[in-house]
Amino acid sequence: MHSPFVISQNDPRPLYQQVKDQLRHRVAIGVLKPGDEIPSIRQLAADIRVSVITIKRAYLELEMEGVIQTRQGRGSFVSDNAQLGDTMKEQELEGHLRSAVQTALLMNLSEDELIERLREVRRKDPQGRS
Amino acid sequence: MTHDPSQAFSLRGVSKAFRYFRLEDLNLELPLGQIMGLVGPNGAGKSTTIRLLMGLIAPEAGTIEVLGHHVPDEVAAAKAGIAFVSDDMRLFGGATLAWHMRFVASIYPEWDESYARMLLKHFNLRAEQGMRGMSRGEQIKALLLLALARRPRLLILDEPTSGLDPVARHELLSELMQIVRDDSRSILFSSHNTQDVERISDQIAFIDRGRLVDARDKESFLERWRRISLDVPAGVTLPRFKDTVDLTLGERLATLTTDRYEPALHGLLEASGARVTDVQRMSLEEIFVASVMRSRAEVQS
Amino acid sequence: MKSSVFWALVRKDLYVLRGFMLVGTVVGLAALFSMRFGRAGFAIGGILFLTANVASGIFIAMYSLLTERKDHSRLFALSLPISGFKHDLAKLVSGYLSFGIPWTVLTVAGLASFLTPEAAPERGMIIYGLVLQMFVMALFSFVLLWLSIVSSETWAGLMILIANIGFSLFMVTFNQPEIVRPLRTPEINWTPFTVGMFGGELVVIALSVGLAILALSRRRDHI
Question: Which residues, given as ranges, of chain C have pLDDT below 70?
């Protein structure tokens, strides 16, 4: 894994969540492919200067979620699941949509207003880059 | 007398009294391969605890073991594996850093000369400089260099980042995290910098007024504590929870701080008629302050 | 491993104190030499010799035990793989060595000067020299014992005062005509006074060393 993780204590998400999200994202966009090796817990902890216990937690949860697999004595790998990238993308989209629904609720937007807003964004910014 | 080499250190029932201060029945341990952050106000007993581990002072009660050796009986054997740096420590005034490097290298066979040279660069130090000509910050960096280049099995740091500029602090944290690559090496550090403690510690211990207020792994701390914002309509009384650390009531809004958070709490609160508007995680600093406040209130009552 | 830390600390102290050791020796030898040149040379040389002896001893004792405390390097020294007792013992040993080596040089040189042909008429004064030098060593031992027990600079300052007074009293006593005249002979005679004094000095040295080691071994808190 050559692109460095970006972990910030100013991020509202807890550290273990940031580690999980960044690993999932790499799988989603294909930087990490099924079967690729990922750094050992201690290695990653040293690389991004985050406690071992936090990395352990992130890896444990990712394993339970089926994103990675740890083989005793061999290290950790991205799950051998060919659909993994797609699953990750699905989950990311799901997450974004849920936040949008939640925020829209706080703003008291109706379902139609929310859909209109989504169309507006796609019109102005088709690539979703900004 | 059980020697447990699977632990970096353990203190059991340790007590020590001074004229104006006493450390009471301290129980603390750290497994090998982990980092413990020790947090506490000034005068809480952090330095005393560390000095007890180093065998510099003897306990009046209890047992202390470090790297499988009983302290202070086998303190010399224990210290062979420990590197200790304290913010009030100084090196020998009349000598240079190079002299100290040779001195330390002659005592500890694990001295890594090439690593030491790399640290000289990273910490921006000159080996030929005399101790007297060094600023406080440079002396601390020199002490850290001498401690790190020995590749110790247990590194004990008492306020290592006080007096360090941000660049040096960043370098130190990087070097500390390199140590954890080896699962047999451990670190104990006391610090006021709760952000650093929160980031790199596996275990955290809070000390206040000679007592251990709380000690557990970091993720547990962060998961158990929450600040819950509530909307409490008129006529509604909130139920009393024993896990409430603090409850602040305003006109209609209340803030409940708890150290035993679980989602079921929402149900209980809403059953009483209140509405949960926000649940916030707490930073280690906030957790620390809340813990100490509660501990002090308990001691008084 | 432990003994090498012990001797590394002793060597370190000797390295730090090498200036005092050298100056003390050189000044003392120069003073001895100048004592050949007439009455004035004898008087001045004599005083200088004694000052070099006593002062360097006091300086060394104070410096090695107190500056370590002042410049907080004691904490660093105690972080080394050595017990607190052995560390303090190393300080005691380096104290005795850093004083004892120049002292031995000056004592041998001083006593030897009584064995020269010119000194033949008053060869008995070699006893005077021996008792005097042993007094200085006894004084130094006493100061080191004191510094092993107390830890503040006030007590240390008091120690210098007592040492000075003690030395002055000794010189006044020892230089009384009734004490000195029996020694100004070509033969070497031990008078009752000199026997008692010499014996007393040896006892003081032995006791001081023993008690200092005992005091250090009983320390439970080293910081």
Answer: 1-3, 64-71
pLDDT for C44: 81
Distance from B236 to chain C by nearest Cα, in Å? Answer: 58
Measured between CB atoms, does C67 come within 8 Å of chain B?
yes
Cis preceding linkage at B72, omega within 30? yes
- Give the DSSP letter of residue B45: S
Residue B25: Cβ within 10 Å count: 14
B227: Cβ contacts below 8 Å, ≥ 6 apart: B255, B256, B257, B279, B280, B281, B282, B286
**Residues whose CB is less than 8 angstroms from the CB of residue C144 and which lie 6 or more positions away in sequence, other chains included:** C61, C65, C92, C95, C96, C208, C212
**Structural domain span for residue C198:** 2-218
Decide if C53 is inside a domain. Answer: yes
Task: Indicate whether C223 belongs to any domain.
Answer: no
- In the block, residue with structure tokens 């080596």: C101
How confident is the model over B41-85, as pLDDT tens digits? 988 999 999 999 999 999 999 999 999 999 999 999 999 999 999
Tokens standing for residue B107: 């005592």
Chain B residues near any Cβ of chain C (below 8 Å): 51, 54-58, 72, 75-77, 79-80, 82-84, 86, 88-95, 103, 106-108, 143
Residue A45 has its nearest CB partner, among B177, B218, B222, at B177
Domains of chain B: 7-217 (3.40.50.300), 226-281 (no CATH)
Q: Which residues does chain B have within 8 Å of residue C1's beta carbon, measured at their own beta carbons? A: 76, 80, 107
CA pair distance A112, B58, nearest whole angstrom: 73
* C181-211 confidence digits (pLDDT tens): 888 888 888 999 999 999 999 999 999 999 9
Q: What are phi and psi of C80, to 5 degrees?
A: -75, 160
Per-residue model confidence (pLDDT) at position B266: 87
pTM across the whole model = 0.89
- The two most distant CA atoms of chain B are separated, in Å, by 75
Rounded distance between C-alpha atoms, residue C213 and residue C219, angstroms: 10
Name the residue facing B219 among A45, A49, A53 (closest C-beta): A53
Number of domains in chain C: 1
Contact B155, B179 (CB under 8 A): yes
> Is A49 within 8 Å of B202 when comparing Cβ atoms?
no
ipTM of the complex: 0.90
Please state, in angstroms and rounded to a whole number, the distance separating the CA atoms of residues B90 and B70.
Answer: 27
Using a CB–CB cutoff of 8 Å, tell me whether C187 touches chain B: no
pLDDT in the model for residue C1? 44
